[in-house]
Write a structure and sequence with these properties.
Length: about 160
C-alpha cells in the first residue's frame, strides 16, 4: 500500500524518475510476491485475461485482510493508477474491488435515479468512478435507452 501511495505522490508531482525507480524497487522486492505482482500489473504485464488471474489471486488474498484494509489498499492503488495515466487499468481494478464486495454503494441505477457514491474514495478512485459513471450514461444516451430523471453524485 505504501508503494502505491508513493507512486501516486510522485506521479502527481511529475517526478517520473522517482516513480520509475520506485516501480523497479517493487519489482525487485524478493520478500513479497504481492509487491511484485502489483508492480507488474501497474507496468502492464498482466493485461491479458490469462495473466490477469495472477492479479485476481493477489486481490483475493488481500480481501481476507478485511474491509478496512481493502478500502485503503484499493484507494491507494487507484490513486497510483489514475495519476500514472492508467485510466483503463484503474477502471479494471475498481471493477475487481466492487466484485469483492468493497464500495457496494458505488453505483446505483433505476428508472428514476442514476447515481454514484464516492464518499469513501480518494481522489484517483473518485475520478475513476466518475469516468465510468459518465461513460455508462453516454452509452445509454447513444444507444437510445431512456435516461433516468435524476443524476446524483454523493461526495460526503
Amino acid at each position: 500500500m505504501c508503494y502505491c501511495m508513493m507512486l501516486a505522490v510522485y506521479a502527481k508531482c511529475d517526478r517520473w524518475d522517482y516513480a520509475y525507480k520506485l516501480l523497479d524497487e517493487m519489482l525487485a522486492n524478493k520478500v513479497s510476491n504481492i509487491h511484485q505482482v502489483i508492480g507488474q500489473m501497474i507496468r502492464g504485464d498482466f493485461d491479458g485475461d490469462a495473466n490477469w488471474q495472477m492479479v485476481e489471486y493477489i486481490f483475493d488474498k488481500l480481501n481476507s485482510e478485511g474491509c478496512g484494509f481493502g478500502i485503503r489498499f484499493y484507494n491507494a492503488l487507484l490513486e497510483a493508477l489514475w495519476w500514472l495515466g492508467q485510466k483503463e487499468r484503474a477502471a479494471r481494478v475498481l471493477k475487481e474491488a466492487t466484485k469483492r464486495g468493497l464500495f457496494p454503494e458505488l453505483f446505483r441505477q433505476n428508472k428514476l435515479v442514476f447515481f454514484v457514491d464516492v464518499h469513501r474514495m480518494w481522489e484517483g478512485g473518485t475520478y475513476t468512478s466518475l469516468s465510468i459513471w459518465l461513460n455508462n450514461m453516454q452509452e445509454m444516451f447513444l444507444s437510445g435507452d431512456d435516461l433516468p430523471q435524476l443524476a446524483t453524485v454523493v461526495v460526503a
